[in-house]
């Protein structure tokens, strides 16, 4: 963060303090996310810049994180198929996760109703294992096997979604490049 925390707006500070966002940042698995979709010809902003991006990665417990980024000049509906979301697990939609149903949680929906989460008093790893909803977010839908997820993303904004397997309870079959 390249800003003075004392001058941040309450909205910006609440994003930085969001327990579900911190849980993703402090995920015990510690893996990076991957860019799986980049569209450069979106509606430009007043500076002539535009970009639509989908980032995804594997989290502890078999969950999957999906970030939808709209760096364009107008609100946009962004979608990603399960084939795109799990492209790093296996090529061309062959990952078994593509054939599963996935719950979709939006952490922001829960934050307004939840009690404050204190990361210094709790272990993120243990609380993720115990399904603490303050870290996982509130379930807002499901993605059918082979389906896609779409959400409206305001201009110059991002949305974060956590996917959790309905069928396998988080067990994942993942192959590294060396195994393929």
Automatic annotation (TrEMBL):
Keyword Hydrolase: yes
Molecular-function GO term, any one: alpha-galactosidase activity
Lineage: superkingdom: Eukaryota
Domain Alpha galactosidase C-terminal: 51-106
Keyword Cell membrane: no
GO BP field: carbohydrate metabolic process
Gene3D superfamilies tied to this protein: Golgi alpha-mannosidase II
InterPro entries: Glyco_hydro_27 (IPR002241), Glyco_hydro_b (IPR013780), Melibiase_C (IPR041233)
UniProt KW keywords: Glycosidase, Hydrolase, Signal
Annotated EC: 3.2.1.22
Catalytic activity from the UniProt record: Hydrolysis of terminal, non-reducing alpha-D-galactose residues in alpha-D-galactosides, including galactose oligosaccharides, galactomannans and galactolipids
Matching PANTHER family: ALPHA-GALACTOSIDASE MEL1, ALPHA-GALACTOSIDASE/ALPHA-N-ACETYLGALACTOSAMINIDASE
Protein name (database record): alpha-galactosidase
Source organism per UniProt: Rhynchosporium graminicola
Lineage: Eukaryota, Fungi, Dikarya, Ascomycota, Pezizomycotina
């Amino acid at each position: 963060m390249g800003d003075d925390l004392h001058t941040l707006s309450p909205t910006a500070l609440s994003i930085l303090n969001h327990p579900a966002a911190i849980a993703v940042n402090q995920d015990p698995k510690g893996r990076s996310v991957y860019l799986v979709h980049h569209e450069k010809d979106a509606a430009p902003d007043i500076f002539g810049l535009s970009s639509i991006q989908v980032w995804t990665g594997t989290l502890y417990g078999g969950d999957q994180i999906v970030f939808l980024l709209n760096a364009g000049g107008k609100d946009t509906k962004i979608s990603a198929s399960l084939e795109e979301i799990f492209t790093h697990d296996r090529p061309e939609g062959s990952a078994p996760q593509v054939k599963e149903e996935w719950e979709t949680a939006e952490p922001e929906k829960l934050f307004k109703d939840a009690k404050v989460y204190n990361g210094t008093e709790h272990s993120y790893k243990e609380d993720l294992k115990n399904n603490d909803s303050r870290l996982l977010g509130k379930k807002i839908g499901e993605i059918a096997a082979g389906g896609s997820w779409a959400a409206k993303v305001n201009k110059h904004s991002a949305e974060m979604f956590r996917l959790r397997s309905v069928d396998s309870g988080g067990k994942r079959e993942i192959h590294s490049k060396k195994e393929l």
